[in-house]
Amino acid sequence: MGVPFPKNQPMRLYASLWEAEHWATRGGLEKTDWSKAPFTAFYRNYNVEGCVWANGKSSCPGNSPWFTQKVDFEGQKKMKWAQSKYMIYNYCTDKRRFPRGVPAVCT
């Protein structure tokens, strides 16, 4: 479109809710309680580690952004803990949805 990405200014975060009861719920095992609709989502303890921009310069150390850095062993342990406690569906292991192989992002 020819419009530069707004990387040096404040941004907002938006999300959407969608019905995925047939594929994102362990094959339909997790049911949506539609009697609770309309649903409201909110962010709790949301924190972004952004870099402050002033006079065209970033306060980030180094040249690479934080999200391109490798996750260390301790970070991997925390991620595995969160996955085991909260994740109910992983499309990278959904052989029924992807009988010909999982998406490339999973490999």
UniProtKB/TrEMBL annotation:
It is an enzyme of class 2 (transferase). InterPro entries: Beta-glucanase-like, Beta-glucanase/XTH, ConA-like_dom_sf, XET_C. It holds the Pfam family Glyco_hydro_16. Its EC number is 2.4.1.207. Signal peptide: none annotated. It is found in: Secreted, Cell wall; Secreted, Extracellular space, Apoplast. Residues 3-36 form the GH16 domain. Residues 63-106 form the Xyloglucan endo-transglycosylase C-terminal domain. SUPFAM superfamilies: Concanavalin A-like lectins/glucanases (SSF49899). GO terms for cellular component: apoplast. Gene3D superfamilies: 2.60.120.200. GO terms for biological process: cell wall organization; glucan metabolic process. It catalyses: breaks a beta-(1->4) bond in the backbone of a xyloglucan and transfers the xyloglucanyl segment on to O-4 of the non-reducing terminal glucose residue of an acceptor, which can be a xyloglucan or an oligosaccharide of xyloglucan. Keywords: Apoplast, Cell wall, Cell wall biogenesis/degradation, Glycosidase, Hydrolase, Secreted, Signal, Transferase. GO terms for molecular function: hydrolase activity, hydrolyzing O-glycosyl compounds; xyloglucan:xyloglucosyl transferase activity. This is xyloglucan:xyloglucosyl transferase.
